[in-house]
Amino acid sequence: MSPTKRTSTLILLVLAVCLPLVACSSGSSETETASAPDTPTIGTTASREPSADPTASATRTPTPTATPRPAPNIDLSGTTTTVYYDVLGTTTEAIFESFNLNGPVLEDEGLGLGLTEWNFPIPNYDLRVQERACEIESFEMSVELTVTLPRLVEFDSATPYIQDNWEMLFEEIAEHEQRHVDIVLEGLEALRTEIESVGSLQTCAALDGEIERFWEDASVEINLAQDAFHTEDDAFLEARRAPLQAQIDANESELASLDSEIAFLEASLPEVESSVAAIEAQIEGIDQQIQGIESDYPGNALPANVYSQYSSLVDAYNALLPEHELLIDEYNRTVGSLNATIDRYNALISATNALIDDLTWLQ
């Protein structure tokens, strides 16, 4: 019996897009013709053979044994190629700006850090007819995967902080893309199991339909598994980022409070400065009057009326000094508070920027 061959054209599909299989025509079968037993001719006498000796031993014909069916030749393989794109910069900001410019384009998702692409071609397979049933003789399908990963061009010029974070990020990107590769390969193994277990069907058309269903189901299951992996990975990443984000949010809230405090202190300084300037002008005016009298009377022999004026001026001068000191103290305290608040603000800005850098590397 000659096998019926079924061959389909190889079509490359990116990201496992399903296309229907081309159904094959029914397989051929052989028809056996039975011959009628000889019967005596009417009007003649049939010859008789002597009766068999009942004591003679019976002769047995050996029962033929079934020839085992050869297992189908199934060749499902996946080949992975890794390519790299350049990332420039030696600071967190510059590196991620380069990611945004040079990263691989994701389908409907903008730019990414890494990418795994694969084809899911229509398989080539041969069917054969054996014992009035159709079965798979051979099945071949090769999936080609391409993994795109980043390469930091100026790695050796970067600080230890950048180098450590780059190595961590690169490892996580590579592991993420490898999981995409593994999902495709697991899907191929699931398809292999289906093909191996199908056995034979009554017609090749029915077997074509089963193969088409297996192929479509494998494509769908791979894509569903990829989506489930992304959902799981996004949740894991969000959990890792949450503590840093919470600390950044708390810092930004405190920065807003410090900013308000700085604005209040800066607004209060002119009023204190004005009060200090006003009292210093009074003190200076009185001092000039006192010095004028002392200049007019070098020996301090003051007439009674001048002495009375002089004494009043000295009393007024001395009375303003404590008030002046209080205003100066208030001014100095305000300036001190302002400077201390600015220092706290700047320190918190630095700490927050460091947290933002750390968060940026968690991708």
Layout of secondary structure:
Blueprint (H helix, E strand, L loop, with lengths): L72 E15 L4 H11 L2 E2 L3 E2 L3 E4 L5 E7 L2 E20 L7 H38 L2 E2 L2 H93 L7 H58 L2
Parallel strand pairs: 1-6
Antiparallel strand pairs: 2-3, 4-6, 5-6, 6-7
Helix pairs in contact: 2-3, 3-4
Order of helices and strands: EHEEEEEHEHH
- Oligomeric category: single chain
Classify the beta-strand content into a percent band: 5-15%
Would you identify the regions where 5 or more consecutive residues have pLDDT less than 50?
A: 1-61
Count of DSSP strands: 7
- Distance between the amino and carboxyl termini: 61 Å
Mean pLDDT: 83
State the shape.
rod-shaped
Number of helices: 4
Structural class: alpha+beta
Radius of gyration: 48 Å
- The helix fraction, in percent, is 55-70%
| Biggest sheet architecture | 5 strands, mixed
